[in-house]
Amino acid sequence: MNSENPIRVRFAPSPTGFLHVGNVRTALFNWLLAGRHGGTFVLRIEDTDAARSETRFERQLVEDLSWLGLDWSEGIDRGGEYGPYRQTDRYDLYRRYAARLLDEDRAYRCFCSAAELEETRRLQLERRETPRYAGTCRRLPPDEIRERVGRGDPFTLRLRVRPGCVGFDDLVFGRIEIETSQVSDPVLVRSDGSPTYNFCCVVDDLLMRISHVVRGDGHLSNTHRQVLIYEALSAEPPRFAHLSTILGPDGQKLSKRHGATSIEDFRRRGYLPEALVNYLALLGWSPPEDGREVLALDEIREQFDLGRVQKSPAIFDTAKLDWMNRTWIHRIPGTELLGAARPHFTAAGLLPAESSPALDAWAGRVIDLVKTRVDHLDQLPEAAEVVYGADPPALDADARAALAAPEGREVALDFVRRVEAGGALTPEGYRRIVGEVKSATGRKGRHLYHPIRAVLTGQGSGPDLETLAPLCDEGARLPLPRPVLSPAARARRILEAV
Length: 498
Fold this sequence. Notes:
It contains 21 helices and twelve strands. The protein is mainly alpha-helical.
């Protein structure tokens, strides 16, 4: 792939709903291909479905792509020399190319009504034939055509498909050929004057100089029609690469019954963009280094090769995505995660909506303490309960047993007295107090630390106490919507509850 033939790819969603896993993977693979070869990634909006297209969906898909880091250098919101980049703004271009095909007798007017076409289809199905257009209007006399146009009879514009085979070399599936009799004569322009998907797609890709069309294998049947339209326009088609279908763990096509599938759903639940693009890249593609799965977007781009895209369907495994997301959460400092995590904390009443340096620094340390216990960010508030402290306290059986034993209660009481007398509890102060309790009681190891954990948290296991105790002490001094119980206050409540 050299500078004489620059890579130009496009992602062309319809704004009829939220971006889902399948079309985001398509966008990602196009972005990776362009980035790998210094090419251009174009964002085009295919909004000819007027009944279902909504501006809110367009705004959301732009926001989602930006959030994922899949920036585009040409297209809506960016401009470029091959615009406009919204199909409803390009109708004059489609009319011009339709008129050209009609003038060259590569397309013809079809006056068949919807009822007539449906009746033909019914009869074909009864005869167990593949439904296809019967070619009724293919050879209408010119005089009849002029007469019917003159009196205003509605008509569609159909491509005059040639006999023989039509095929293309797919960069994933190899050579694919079919008889053109299977294609029928596709409609290019509907009776209301609106162009069809396949016609718009070809005109746009041709005029935008798209070199590679990378899309889902659900478009394979469209590709033969589009190749025939390119032929009719005497134009060279782009290279095609079709991506295998994404299936759920049950082997069925991925849908909402398998869980979240839209990017909006994943964002709301607190998945990280780094984890999502990492996971989606591995759905149907494998990096050259075996066994390496956790990769930043820039690393994936440098290694991406269409030759490593697999033909077999990819399985979407939520457990694997959760593992990937957990791995990325562990990698990123809490202060960097706070922006995405704050709405979850705010909704739970644990943090104010407004940020401040002191609050943000503390909240970042809280996230660092508990993030190893979550798969996605919406689980952080529950994990952070150990910092805030429950009132009334909730004790598990392990903690209750530790504090009910005389030797355990002795350690806990001595610890609480020293905390109450010691002022602000820093990590160094916590270590000093534990050392003093050890000397005073003669306890060590589990017999020392288990009662201290139980009296601070009410739990038999949990995060590092040397970090937790100072965080609780500092949080108790901060202006929070829900006050944090100080170590001394929570310890007294827990002892009273045993």
